Amino acid sequence: MTRPGPVAPDQELPIRELPSPNWDARPPETPIDMLILHYTGMPTVQAALDRLRDPAARVSSHYVVDEDGAVWRLVEEANRAWHAGVSCWRGHRTLNDRSVGIEIVNPGHEWGYRPFPALQMAAVCDLCLGILGRYPIPARNVVGHSDVAPDRKEDPGELFDWLGLAANGVGLWPDPSHPAGAVDDVPAALRAIGYGEGELSTVLRAFQRHWLPGAISGQADDATRTRLHMVATACGGA
User: Of 13, 53, 125, 173, which is the most buried if we count CB atoms within 10 A?
Assistant: First the structure.
């Protein structure tokens, strides 16, 4: 997968305004401490934008990033967008309250899942870095929709370049130079990373989509136990 290039700190990402009516107020005194990445999972960008702005659909996101790198803002960050649904991360269950949501244009597994273009990933990286500069979001809280809703979602999926984003300061990826180990208590390691309760094989698939994308088996094999150890260790310092 192509990694995004270095981000120039003096360049401001151009953003197109396309307001959605699907938002409400965040609860008072709730921190913005999560960044949740999705794919649109629809045949075209226009279909996705139409749905995210349809009052009857009652879904939205703060931003949409097209495959050519174009970025639309649908909901102001100060407001609550409706993107996470029933979800859980690190003991929190109403994640729309505390997160910024980005929809990344891709047909998804239903309509012809494909790699994310380099221009798109560069724009996602720039957008995320701006958000991370505005809010105290720890690296372990930059996650995918499938991480917070593993029983319902697969996005942004195994083709998404989490490693490339982490190399540019967005999210977490374990350092391969650190001594490797393997976990014995797999559910405990998943909880330490942030995953909620659920069927173990389902949660493991979500973990593998994010951190071991070449082996999405839902099984706690040796490679998965080793990667669980690495990620859980990294989360302790993130």
Answer: 125
